[in-house]
User: Fold this.
Amino acid sequence: MKALILLFFIMNSNKATIIILCILGLLVVVTIFNLIRSKSIQPEYDLESYEFMVGEALMTHVQCVPEIIRSYEKVKEYYDYSNILIFRYIQNTCNTCLDSQLNELLTFQEEIGKEHVWVFPSYPDDRNSLVRLRAELGKFNFRNIPTELLLIPIYNGEPKSYFAWINGDGDIQMVYVPDRSNVHHTRRYFEEVKRILDNN
Assistant:
């Protein structure tokens, strides 16, 4: 009798184990399907042209591109811009890096015209910040946009400024994260922007 009870218990525990394994297997399949589906609906970007424009030295930052695109898509209806190059940075950006990037941008602005360049800093909304921005960006069109509205990616605790082209439809393209040690990449990027602008 005891042997029969033991055999019944073992058979039932095996069935329970099989059922649990089947349920776990089904959950894994559903999870994988959802992950694939979520990735397929994310905005796409042209990795090859990005690599061509900025060079392999900056490919470590390419993962921020989709997030920047999604961030701009959420706010573009509030900012009616088209056919412009934007430069986005935060108050805590390295001063030396910022000076270098703004100097390169100012030189390029002289080629394509001030109407095609906008700088989007992110500073506190107070009088001191406004005075500072007017002093630093007096030669540019600029608009102070809070970080929570338009993404500024951070890697290893350091905010990353970026350039991007806003096309004729107001969509963001050609996101480029500059590197102070590779100024020639920035200049190649500007050449590509000028080529697009000349063809419009």
